[in-house]
Design a protein that fits this description.
- The chain is α+β, with helices and mostly antiparallel strands.
- It has 2 domains: 137 residues, Fructose-1,6-Bisphosphatase, Chain A, domain 1 (2-Layer Sandwich), CATH 3.30.540.10; 120 residues, D-Maltodextrin-Binding Protein, domain 2 (3-Layer(aba) Sandwich).
- The protein has an 8-stranded mixed β-sheet, with helices on both faces. Strands 12-11-13-15-14 form a 5-stranded mixed β-sheet, sandwiched between helices. A two-stranded antiparallel ribbon has the order 1-2.
- The longest helix has 21 residues.
- It is globular, with a radius of gyration of 18 Å.
Length: 271
């Protein structure tokens, strides 16, 4: 059995406690009270309750840590060099439509670097976790990115821009580049699970733009600790702040990046 550090052993019970509420609310999704936050962006009371649970549990266990949360924003801690980055419900739209594909995500950022990560899919009871230098795991099984080395054999995930968000023209151009070159593309609506699935070798790669820090923070470490390669779309490594991501194994990242950059050049010329 993989040994978990005291920090992971603090995060996991908090995540499990928050997940119990999500499971119950998912079973009553039609009765959920929903508020509209912005264009095509719905936030359920389940989302808010889960975040409150995570905040209370983690604040009690690590009172010096700061927080960056999807709903609650930034909360300063006694230490300014370490914080939790929390997404209490990644896959909100899936959740609200009764689609059983969503997750809780908690990462620890220390001096600008992700050092611990937990992503939990409550309905599948799949706990993805990682620590810097210690590997990535699904429950107690060590994870490894896929070994595929040909684009034509590879399955990729992405996110589709929706109403009021993202660059639709750019995304269509990306699809036109990728589709003839690869085995298939999936869009499941949860960035944190997309990255966990890359770490687990279920996807060979994943790309997306217009992301928030809590969408990607945990997944960054999962992919790296599973032997994968992850950058933003400029090739940079400050993905938390960059808002874009390309993740794959070390063989497929470069060809993915070439396709993305080809689109970027064509869009620049068109402008």
């Amino acid at each position: 059995m993989a040994r978990r550090s005291p920090l992971i052993n603090v995060i996991v019970p908090a995540v499990m406690k928050a997940s119990r509420t999500l499971r119950r609310d998912f079973g009553e999704v039609e009765q959920l009270q929903v508020s509209r936050k912005g264009p095509a962006d719905f936030v359920s009371m389940a989302d808010k309750k889960a975040e409150e649970t995570l905040f209370e549990e983690l604040r009690h266990a690590r009172p010096d840590f700061g927080f960056l949360m999807e709903e609650g924003g930034e909360v300063k801690g006694k230490r300014d060099d370490i914080r939790f980055i929390i997404d209490p419900l990644d896959g909100t739209t899936n959740f609200l439509h009764g689609l059983p594909h969503f997750a809780i995500s908690v990462a620890v950022e220390e001096r600008g670097e992700i050092t611990a990560a937990v992503t939990y899919a409550p309905l599948n009871d799949e706990l993805f976790w990682a620590e810097k230098g210690q590997g990535a795991y699904l429950n107690d099984t060590r994870l490894r990115v896929s070994g595929r080395n040909k684009m034509e054999d590879a399955l990729f995930a992405t996110g589709i821009p929706f109403k009021g968000r993202g660059n639709h023209e750019r995304f269509i151009a990306e699809l036109e580049e990728f589709m003839p070159a690869i085995a298939g593309i999936r869009r499941f609506g949860s960035a944190t699970l997309d990255l966990a699935y890359v770490a687990a070798g279920r996807y060979d790669g994943y790309w997306e733009a217009d992301l928030q820090p809590w969408d990607v923070a945990a997944g960054i470490l999962l992919v790296r600790e599973a032997g994968g390669y992850i950058t933003d779309m400029t090739g940079g490594t400050n993905i938390v702040k960059g808002g874009t991501v390309i993740a794959a194994n070390d063989r497929l990242h470069a060809p993915m990046e070439r396709l993305i950059k080809r689109v970027q050049r064509s869009m620049t010329k068109a402008d």
